[in-house]
Amino acid sequence: MRESPIGIFDSGIGGLTVVKAVRQILPKEDIIYLGDTARLPYGSKSTEAIIQFSIEDTQFLVDRGAKYVVIACYSSASVALDIIRKEFSIPVIGVIRPGVRRAMQVAKSGKIGVIGTSLTIYSGGYEKAFKEEGAEAEILGKSCPLFVPLVEEGWLDHEVTTLVAREYLEPFKKDNIDTLLLGCTHYPLLLRTIRKIMGNINYVDASAEVGTELAQGLKKRDLQNPGGKGSTSIYLTDLSINYKEIGERFLGEPMKNFSRVSLKSREMKK
Amino acid sequence: MRESPIGIFDSGIGGLTVVKAVRQILPKEDIIYLGDTARLPYGSKSTEAIIQFSIEDTQFLVDRGAKYVVIACYSSASVALDIIRKEFSIPVIGVIRPGVRRAMQVAKSGKIGVIGTSLTIYSGGYEKAFKEEGAEAEILGKSCPLFVPLVEEGWLDHEVTTLVAREYLEPFKKDNIDTLLLGCTHYPLLLRTIRKIMGNINYVDASAEVGTELAQGLKKRDLQNPGGKGSTSIYLTDLSINYKEIGERFLGEPMKNFSRVSLKSREMKK
């Protein structure tokens, strides 16, 4: 079991930022990654559909021997985490709570900013998570719908991206937040540009925080791989035109080991 | 039959630009519009999936009495038009060919530019269409992946949009094209910005050209509605957060008559 891989899934390839973070923190662990690119984006789907897809994604990883599952998709982690924990016997961790807990640790001023896609911000998932974690800080959300397409276009340091970031983040400067939570798989790639606008405040990268909590979870359950090779196998349900170029941007290294797969439909337990 | 509505479908709400164009040209016709927002975008799906979805969309419109079907989705029109014509007995028109034919009529210099999403450009669908229509002009394609999110964000005249357009369209200026085909439902809303960059050349709005060919088709088949009210009924398979605001941007008027619907699955004829 300790030699088994860690399973990570996302609706697309943005979750490879989580893979990158996990690899840095846990270099000996083997990772299998599933990107459900045939059905992305999950964010515009109904809750029932997101739950069903998330169960099928988890089943795929479990069938390949995953000892631990990480939900790298913000939509899935918002609506499906509890149900997946009930449906499967292996430990499961979502991308939302670790970032929330970290933001609460570092925030001093009582004002925490959260950026994400429209669904992430307007669904109120983050406000609920902060509340349930007992946060007393004021949570200020801002949706940044152009950030994902800008990252996928590869314009990480483009003047357009700086202009867009200035417009989106202006309200946070006025509100004097001291901590900004990057609530989307794509946003860590824009940190340099965001820092140019927001300056020297605390930045919490939810993708990286998942890695930290995953390492703690493996240790607590005695599931650490003593001698893995640190391999990464990538499975995608559809291969779009730019998937490799964009995927390598997230992963921070060449994508060597990837294949296209189909998912089996799976009934929920009664 | 002449009193029956025209059916128009798209994977999302961008096809409402086609509705707007049809209403202007055929003000007495009643229109039913289906946006398959639960399954958008079609562009990232497999050909088999797009065909299956397109058949279900058409069936929905036929079940509601459509006398003519317009495929306002570029991905559907690329891969599913011929099959839909075989599956259904009513006349069907796609969004691609009318724009191609119009561009061939107005182009003088022998160089035609086409802009669209990555799928539209890299699939080669436009090149094939121009070739099959007998075009001798050189066809220059450029994907503009940020245009759709910019329109959906509502930044139609924003300085960011001007900067993005300048970067995307620069190659066309160097190539001295004299005709630019707007090959995406969202792009007519950016025409003012595009014109600032490209100046006084020919612009072909594929959405509008579909309306023109539809009017000809109705007349030819004696299907014109002599006394319709010009009503528009909008059906969406999912209601996302900003659908109304964005939809009204495409439609150019308030969305009054809309409902959420589920599609029935449908087997293809053997």
Describe the model.
Two copies of one chain form a homodimer. Chain A has about 270 residues and is an alpha/beta fold. Chain A folds into two domains: about 5-95 and about 210-260, 3-Layer(aba) Sandwich (Rossmann fold); about 95-205, 3-Layer(aba) Sandwich (Rossmann fold), CATH 3.40.50.1860. Chain A contains twelve helices and ten strands. Chain A has helices at about 15-25, 45-65, 75-80, 80-85, 95-105, 120, 125-130, 145-155, 160-175, 190-200, 205-220, 245-250, and strands at about 5-10, 30-35, 70, 90-95, 110-115, 140-145, 180, 200-205, 230-235, 260. In chain A, the strands form two sheets. The first copy, chain A, has a six-stranded parallel sheet, with helices on both faces. In chain A, strands 6-5-7-8 form a four-stranded parallel sheet, with helices on both faces. In chain A, strand 9, helix 12 (about 245-250) and strand 10 (about 260) form a beta-alpha-beta unit. Chain A is globular. The first copy, chain A, starts with 5 loop residues before the first strand and ends in a 10-residue tail after the last strand. The mean pLDDT of chain A is about 90.
